[in-house]
């Protein structure tokens, strides 16, 4: 059965190619290569896990936001307002992922430096008064009419690809601090300054994990890497020291049940812990959360896991944790396979995306469970947020493309 070499034609046949599919569909790149290799599919299990997390996220966003119109702040909204917008975001994310799946990795490799430049320009643009939208004293969004775009989400993907491209170019001098490490450290510093100006400490931590992780996986000198970690930790300590608000959050996190903290900086954390406590093993039942009734702020975004814990209990939270763990592990396996096939850029990009998903998931879950200070980070694939869900799906589509090209090479074809 044949299909068009590009676009969305034959998408169902492509998806059915699966892990071992021998459906004789022409590759998207067959016109340029001159030889039409067989379609070999991608990891269907990974795609289904991603779809499952998105689907559960849709249900829980609706459950966590249905009561918000009872509050004066959202009195003009309908009970389905946030769910409807989230469905729209997921629809756009699926379209963006399908388009991304059609783009060869060699194209991404060429685009990586320019994608990083575009992310920097948008991070500067969002800080301009009148352009960036201020929400809760943070200027992080650019209004686009139907949705708000958050440049820091693009910066995560741009950093993953730029760092992978950078290590490709610096392989011969990766032991040199001045020629390999220092330029990357400067780039990370510039991004960090722009993010802290918003402020968005959570996004900066994720981007730092991505960039430093790729440097480490790319083979940077171990001693130099330890020095970089020391400098980064020192910078974070300095930021916390000079910022009374951030310092207050740290101390509140250490003792959330103190009266002043429970009524102030640790208010979200204490109600998140109450939600988990109410959920016990099997939860109160879907839709039966009390904390979402205006007790727990941002229940449909940063603290969605707490609502999952209250309504679905330890069992539901455990399923989510296992799903994310398997997904991140599988992404790293795909990255290692690409490196073994001498596709270093693709391999490092996949591993950078794995660091992104794993790092952000760990921070969000840690905040919800009270083991990390409160940060404004969503749970990937599940929390409400337009640009976050779109960029996450685009990044995961890149991983599926890498896996697809790996399988093509293993079958003797060209990626």
UniProtKB/TrEMBL annotation:
Protein name: Probable peptidoglycan glycosyltransferase FtsW
Entry keyword set: Cell cycle, Cell division, Cell inner membrane, Cell membrane, Cell shape, Cell wall biogenesis/degradation, Glycosyltransferase, Membrane, Peptidoglycan synthesis, Transferase, Transmembrane, Transmembrane helix
Function text: Peptidoglycan polymerase that is essential for cell division.
Keyword Transferase among UniProt keywords: yes
Subcellular location: Cell inner membrane; Cell membrane
Reactions mediated catalytically: [GlcNAc-(1->4)-Mur2Ac(oyl-L-Ala-gamma-D-Glu-L-Lys-D-Ala-D-Ala)](n)-di-trans,octa-cis-undecaprenyl diphosphate + beta-D-GlcNAc-(1->4)-Mur2Ac(oyl-L-Ala-gamma-D-Glu-L-Lys-D-Ala-D-Ala)-di-trans,octa-cis-undecaprenyl diphosphate = [GlcNAc-(1->4)-Mur2Ac(oyl-L-Ala-gamma-D-Glu-L-Lys-D-Ala-D-Ala)](n+1)-di-trans,octa-cis-undecaprenyl diphosphate + di-trans,octa-cis-undecaprenyl diphosphate + H(+)
Keyword hit for Transit peptide: no
Gene that specifies this protein: ftsW
Domain of life: Bacteria
Coiled coil: none
Any single GO CC term annotated in Swiss-Prot or TrEMBL for this entry: cell division site
GO biological process: cell wall organization; FtsZ-dependent cytokinesis; peptidoglycan biosynthetic process; regulation of cell shape
Recorded metabolic or biological pathway in which this protein acts: Cell wall biogenesis; peptidoglycan biosynthesis
Enzyme class: transferase
GO MF annotation list: lipid-linked peptidoglycan transporter activity; peptidoglycan glycosyltransferase activity
Main location: membrane
Family, similarity comment: Belongs to the SEDS family. FtsW subfamily.
Residue stretches spanning the membrane: 46-66, 87-105, 111-131, 177-195, 201-217, 224-243, 303-328, 340-363, 383-402
InterPro entries from the UniProt entry: Cell_cycle_FtsW-rel_CS (IPR018365), FtsW (IPR013437), FtsW/RodA (IPR001182)
HAMAP family xref list: PGT_FtsW_proteobact (MF_00913)
Membrane association type: Multi-pass membrane protein
EC id: 2.4.99.28
């Amino acid at each position: 059965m044949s299909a068009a070499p590009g676009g969305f034609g034959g998408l169902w046949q492509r998806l059915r190619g699966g892990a071992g599919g021998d459906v004789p569909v022409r590759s998207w790149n067959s016109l340029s290569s001159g030889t039409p290799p067989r379609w070999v599919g991608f990891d269907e299990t990974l795609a289904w896990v991603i779809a499952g997390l998105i689907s559960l996220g849709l249900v829980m966003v609706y459950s966590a936001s249905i009561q918000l119109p009872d509050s004066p702040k959202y009195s003009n909204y309908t009970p389905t307002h946030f769910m409807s917008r989230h469905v729209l975001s997921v629809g756009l994310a699926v379209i963006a992922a399908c388009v991304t799946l059609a783009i060869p990795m060699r194209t991404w490799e060429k685009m990586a430096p320019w994608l990083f430049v575009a992310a920097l320009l948008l991070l500067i643009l969002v800080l301009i008064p009148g352009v960036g939208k201020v929400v809760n004293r943070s200027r992080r969004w650019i209004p686009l009419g139907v949705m708000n775009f958050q440049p820091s989400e693009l910066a995560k993907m741009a950093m993953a690809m730029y760092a992978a491209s950078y290590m490709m170019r610096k392989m011969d001098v990766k032991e040199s601090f001045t020629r390999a490490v220092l330029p990357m450290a400067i780039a990370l510093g510039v991004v960090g300054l722009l993010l802290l100006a918003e402020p968005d400490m959570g996004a900066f931590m994720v981007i730092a994990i991505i960039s430093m992780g790729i440097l480490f996986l790319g083979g940077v000198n171990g001693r130099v890497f330890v020095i970089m970690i020391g400098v980064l930790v020192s910078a974070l300590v300095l930021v916390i020291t000079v910022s009374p608000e951030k310092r207050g959050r740290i101390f509140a996190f250490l003792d959330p049940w103190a009266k002043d903290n429970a009524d102030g900086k640790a208010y979200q954390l204490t109600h998140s812990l109450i939600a988990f406590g109410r959920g016990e093993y099997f939860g109160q039942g879907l839709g039966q959360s009390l904390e979402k009734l205006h007790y727990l702020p941002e229940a449909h975004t940063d603290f969605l896991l707490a609502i999952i814990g209250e309504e679905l209990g330890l069992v539901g939270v455990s399923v989510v944790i296992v799903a994310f763990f398997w997904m991140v592990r599988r992404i790293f396996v795909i990255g290692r396979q690409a490196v073994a096939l001498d596709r270093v850029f693709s391999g490092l990009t996949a591993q950078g995306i794995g660091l992104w998903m794993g790092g952000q998931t760990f921070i969000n879950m840690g905040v919800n469970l009270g083991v990390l200070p409160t940060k404004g980070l969503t749970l990937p694939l599940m929390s409400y947020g337009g640009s976050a869900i779109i960029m996450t799906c685009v990044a995961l589509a890149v991983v599926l493309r890498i896996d697809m090209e790996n399988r093509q090479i293993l079958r003797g074809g060209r990626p």
